[in-house]
Structures are given as C-alpha cells and as structure tokens.
Amino acid sequence: MDVIVLMAADRKGNIVGGCRFEFSIDGGQTFSPAQADGMKWSFAVPSASQLASIIIRGTPAAPQYWAAEGAFKADSNGALIPAGASPAFFFVEGTFVMEGPAGPERTWGMHTVTVILFHLSIFRDRTQEAFDALKANADKWVKNADGRWLPPGEPTSWSTPTLPNGEFSLVTSEILGPTTTLVTPPPGREPHPPLVVPPLSFTRGRYSPQTTDFILERKQEGSLPKAFLVSWPRSLRRTVDAGPTPFLVYFTHLLNQNFEEHNAGDSFQDYPFGWNYLYISIYSYLNYREDPLKTYSRGLLYQIAASQKQLVLVIPVGDARLKDSREVGDCVNAALLEELLEEIQSFCFRAAGLFRPPVQHVGRVALASFSSGNEQLAYFLARDANKEHPFYRNTLREVYCFDIPRHRVAALAAHAVNWASVGEKHEEKVIRIYGTSAGAFVPVHQALLGKPPPRDHAYVASTTHRTVAVLPEHSWLPILPNTYSNWEDLAQQVHQLFCGAMLTDALRRSPGF
User: Fold this and answer.
1) Per the CB 3.0–4.6 Å rule, which of 218, 227, 254, 396 could disulfide with 317?
2) 136 in Cβ contact with 471 (< 8 Å)
3) Partners of 100 in the beta sheet?
C-alpha cells in the first residue's frame, strides 16, 4: 500500500492549514481523502506504480488564494513525479521507500510514502494568455486614433529585444553637454526668443533586454491591482544560493486620463486583460518601438539593460475606471505592497523549480513614477499608515520621479524628504527628481540639496543620494530631429522622453543596485 501525504504551504514555505484536497485516479470519480490532522491530508493506494495518472486538486479556504489542479504519475519504483503539474502550485517534497505493514492485513513488504506540497498562491500565471490577447487585436495595432502609440509591427514577445535599426539613443552620465547652442523654441508659449542652451548629451547604444517576463493575475474579488507585469533579468539567479530580490516598482501614468480624455470608456471596461491595458500600461512601457528621440517611446527594459543594474521590474496594472491612487489599490499600502512583492518573489522562484524561496524577505526596493503616476507615489509617501511600517522605513531605499506635474512637485519632494529622514541608515536613502520647470524646482532644490539652485535654465545637480535635474523643453531642441511648429508638440515629446530616457540615469547613479 502506497501513501500520499498532502500539505499546504504559504509564500515563505511554512506548512499551514486551510486547504481541501480532492483526488481522481486513472480518470475515475473525484473524491476527498482523509484528513489526518489540521495540517495534513493522506490517501492510500494499492500500488502507485500501477496507476496511469493521479489528478490532485487543491482548494484553499481563504478567498485570496487560487485553486489549482496538478497531474502526477509514478515511476517504476513507485516514486510520484509531476506529469504536467505547474511548479507554481505543486511540489513533490520526496518519495520515501519504507518496509513495514503495507495494508489492512498488516502483511510486511515494501511501500512508499510521497509528500506533496501545495502552495497557497494569490497569483497565477497568465503570461501566454495575455500575450495572445495582445496579438489577437491586430486591428488596434494600426487603427489607434492619435497615431502615436503604434508599434513597428506585430510583437514577438513581451520584451521585444531589438529595434528595427538595432540602436537607440542613450543619455550619457553627464546628461548636459559642455557646449552651448543657440535655439529658437516653437511659438505657443514662452520662452520664444532665441536662447543659448547647453545641449543634452546622448549617445547610441545596442543594449538588448534579456528577461523572463510574467503577467500575473491576482485572486480575490475586489482586490486591486488585479494584474502585475514582472520582468526578471535572466542574469539574476533564481537558485538556492540567491539573495533577497531587488525590485523596481514603476507607477505608470494614471490610466484614468486615457479613459476620460480619449472617450475610450468601453475599451477600458475589460480589466485587467483588455487590449488597452495590455498595450498602454504594459507593452508600451517595456519596449521602444523606435529611437525615443524620434517618437514617443518608453522602453523601460532597454534602459534597465543600459544601466547594467540587476533588478526586477514590477508594473502594477491599474484600473482606468478609478481615479488617483485608487487605480493601483494595495500598492500604495506599505504593508500590502511588501506582501505582494514577497508573493511575486516566491512565485518566480517556484517557476524556476524552487518551491521554497531561499530567502523570506525582499531586497532593496525602489519606487519610480512617471507623469500623473507621481500622484500615486506621493500618496504612498504621505500616507500616515505607512510611516511606521518597516517596508516604508527600511526596505524602500530609492525614489525616482520623472516629470511630475509642476504644481505638485514641491509637495512630492517634501513627502520624499520626510520619508528619507526616518529608518535605519536613513541618510543613505535616495531621491532623484527630474522635470522641466526651473521655477517649480526652486523649493525642491533647496529641500533636497540644502542650497539655492543655480541660475541656469537647464541644470543637473547630483550627489550620491540626491539628484535634481531641471531640463526645460527648449534645452532638448538641439538633439531632437523633428522641427516643431508649436510648443505643445515639443512639450509632449519631451514629457515622454523623461520616461523614455531618464531611468537609465537614475539607476546608473544608484549606490545600492
């Protein structure tokens, strides 16, 4: 008589209760085995090696965890092995051959005891299904109303590795060049007279992201966010000797502005796997569709590769039907964001074959935000309930703000300074803020660097732990290939470039990643 013992485990590998199991043997009727105690279920079969298949279904009691099904078979020695079971949910702890009473008749002989662990997971893998949905809407790749979101062609992966010409423009470590150029900004907004500006310093690069990408769907009705993009560098080991995982959580622009401004309500109802979500909040942030100096293009994965830093990119997929920080729900809660990152770390290690993560806490974390997404970052930093949590005080080490709306920049900087004044080694926390408006950055410069800003209309002031970069729209004109007929077109191109270029600079300056 062979025995199968089933136990449930949480994200840290601890054995817990709260799960029901069902069996189906060789395609037969489904039934529940006996529960040995509150933490363990057991089931006996005459001889596992004689069975063609064993299907096991785990159903957690708590609503935040997914139910899942796994298929198993036995080898010639009676040891159970997966037969298509996902390592994200099931793990064969081991099969032990024993000699002793093998059945009710208590005859002596050889039998096996197999221990199988079932993971209580708030996530399930929807990577391929989401990618298929992205490609299935081929008409949308050529019919977008504003024409600016269009990629160069049908995608081949979430992290498409090469641009059409192979190279892209990459900001240098200096950002601003040593020379000056006379430029005439386009009409529509001051300054319009010719100005002498220091040109930005860009070079050409061929960095190619090498990542394993996951689209994870979160369980539990009413929870937000319901989906996360996770992009894990292949060079960052998922092995038994790996350390805590370093994370970059990136808040995209508020999707509600697309919902309202483009009258696109119907196309955002299918949350979180409608095409607009998959393209606007995931694919367009991961990839360059062309050189970012030529067209709107964000390419976070290319920028991370160019920085040569090893960290995991996480993009929460917000719900466009909501406003402000509610779009990303639990991600503005320090305690819940830490749990979500621990679940992501655990999931990705299980996907690599390690059922128990080698560490039970996450590593260094950075929060980054672009455009209106800075409102979510500001809310996280200002939220009173976060301020005493260890994640807020100690785990979160770096904050990057890319082109926040100018009327909100002073308040966000004040919240960041308060965050950087608490916790262990708080003097080593990093704040890097990039924007266009010199006037709005006067109090920011004073707060972050302790002195008045320079008089230059474009400047970068940086220390090991602080960066203030003021790069007005007209300072970009010497390097942009387009001729702009009005200020608004120029401003929008520059706005996108803060997302499409400056993450490389922020990560390069990081003392911890």
Assistant:
1) 227
2) no
3) 109
User: pLDDT, tens digit, for every residue of 457-511?
Assistant: 889 999 999 999 999 998 999 999 888 888 899 999 999 999 999 999 999 999 9
- Phi-psi category of residue 188: left, alpha or beta, with phi > 0 → left and psi -120 to 50 → alpha: left
pLDDT (tens digit, 9 = 90+) per residue, 243-293?
Answer: 999 999 999 999 988 776 655 556 688 899 988 899 889 999 999 888 899
Contact 436, 470 (CB under 8 A): yes
Instruction: List phi, psi (to 5°) of 270.
Output: -85, 75
Q: Which token pair is 436?
A: 């266009």
User: What's the alpha-carbon Rg for the chain, to the nearest Å?
Assistant: 26
The values of phi and psi at residue 442, to 5°, are -60, -55
Q: What is the 3-state secondary structure (H, E, C) of 457-477?
A: CCEEEECCCEEEEECCHHHHH
pLDDT tens for each residue of 115-166: 999 999 999 999 999 999 888 875 665 544 444 445 556 678 898 766 767 7
Structure tokens at 13: 């590998």
Q: Tell which residue, 208, 213, 210, has the closest CA to residue 158.
A: 213
Q: What separation in angstroms does the CA of 226 have from each of 206, 223, 319, 393, 420?
A: 34, 6, 8, 26, 30
CA distances from residue 477 to 170, 403, 481 in whole angstroms, order as listed: 16, 17, 8
Number of neighbouring beta carbons within 10 Å of residue 144 = 15
Residues found in the chain: 513
